[in-house]
Amino acid sequence: MHKPQLAAAGVLAAAALLxxxxxxxxxxxxxxxxxxxxxxxxxxxxxxxxxxxxxxxxYQTTSATxxxxxxxxxxxxxxxxxxxxxxxxxxxxxxxxxxxSLHVRNASGTSTSADIDAALTSGKAVGFLRGSTxxxxxxxxxxxxxxxxxxxxxxxxxxxxxxxxNAGVIFSSGSCSQSKRVTTTAVFALRLSAGEIVPxxxxxxASASGNVTFDLTHDTSGAITGGNxxxxxxYRFPSSVTxxxxxxxxxxxxxxxxxxxxxxxxxxxxxxxxxxxxxxxTGASASLLQAVLANPHGYYxxxxxxxxxxxxxxxxxxxxxxx
Length: 323
Prior knowledge:
Distance between the termini: 88 Å
Strand content: over 45%
Number of helices: 2
CATH topology of the largest domain: AOC barrel-like
Strand order of the largest sheet: 1-2-3-4-5-6-7-8
CATH class of the largest domain: Mainly Beta
Structural class: mainly beta
CATH architecture of the largest domain: Beta Barrel
Number of strands: 19
Largest sheet: 8 strands, antiparallel, barrel
Order of helices and strands: HEEEEEEEEEEEEEEEEHEEE
Radius of gyration: 26 Å
Shape: flat
């Protein structure tokens, strides 16, 4: 009378053991890998700024979206990068802080997202990332450092690597009188083509798009006193290319003119002919910035290559978006 019960118990025990075996077979061991990537995010969009004056200087508050490219041996950390950040910078002392979010996505759909908190000091952002990789299968904790301006975005960014100088600030909220609203950035959209070169670069099937951003400084009356110029391009050539110059020239459409601002790219060889290029020129003169803003159609941007020393791609400036 008891044998069926014993048999049933045996079946249940076997099933339990089988289940334990399946669980053990499907179990994934926990691992830890080093998180390292470098990036540039100098394409600025949806930028909004305001300023006010306190007892220790003028404060600039900026909310913007910055885009670019991340490079890493880990595919989860390599691809297009987007940073949405709000920064508060004392433009007198060059101290401040920023917070926001960072997203990296590659062509296969793998992605990484993280929150950023960083101190700002002397044109640098130094802080920490906390986030996760695709479908939260991995936690990301990493140091964060980059050159940063609110109007020009991030350059020479390093996550989990580098030897950035430590930075720390204490920000105390309080009264801050609103300054007269002035334009702090001007963004010129670019779409360069071979057909705009004078004379045209015949037979060249290449293109580039991006922008030139003026990160402007002003005096108390609102007059431009200088600024930085950020060049950002996404270029595509049919084969290997060596870029030798990216620059702003003075001249109307259909004519050539003098060089007025060189981005200083040096010589860059790209084996597959495609990529992103970001260059920041600091300390641009107020007179040049004022002249370009007053008559943007009288200036153009040219990308020069070793194969086309007189210019490969060009675009005439149009009226900028002002923030």
